[in-house]
């Protein structure tokens, strides 16, 4: 189950990188690539809103999946601490 969540985290990170790399750092986004005519016809003016919402959704998804992964993580079972095991650990090494 944990490996499935880790794979989902990796896929969400790849999609998040895609959304971040598409955006223009000056806030123009895809609207700078097209002329004013195509912005009115194709509706590219809304692309910055879609990119921003997608970024926030993917950030929230990655954070939530990371929390779920921690919740699914199981503690490793160590040696049982009883009297004999404690004595074996504290005994000095034998000389040859």
Defining key terms:
96 residues; mainly alpha; 4 helices
Describe this structure in words.
The structure is a single chain. The protein is mainly α. The chain has one domain (2-75). It is 65% helix and 0% strand.
Poorly predicted regions are: none
Largest sheet data: none
- Work out the helicity level: 55-70%
Shape: elongated
Give the oligomeric state of the chains in this entry, treating copies of one chain as homo and distinct chains as hetero.
single chain
Strand elements, count: 0
Helix-strand category: mainly alpha
Bin the strand percentage: under 5%
The total tally of domains equals 1
Radius of gyration based on Cα positions: 26 Å
Task: Enumerate how many helices there are, as a single number.
Answer: 4
Order of helices and strands: HHHH
Q: N-to-C terminal Cα separation, in Å?
A: 49 Å
Mean pLDDT: 75
């Amino acid at each position: 189950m944990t490996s499935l969540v880790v794979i989902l985290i990796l896929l969400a990170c790849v999609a998040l990188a895609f959304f971040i790399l598409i955006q223009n750092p000056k806030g123009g986004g895809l609207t700078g690539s097209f002329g004013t005519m195509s912005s009115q016809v194709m509706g590219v003016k809304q692309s910055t809103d879609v990119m921003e919402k997608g970024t926030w959704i993917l950030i929230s998804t990655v954070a939530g999946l990371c929390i779920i992964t921690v919740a699914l993580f199981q503690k490793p079972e160590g040696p049982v601490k009883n009297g004999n095991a404690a004595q074996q650990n504290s005994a000095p090494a034998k000389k040859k």
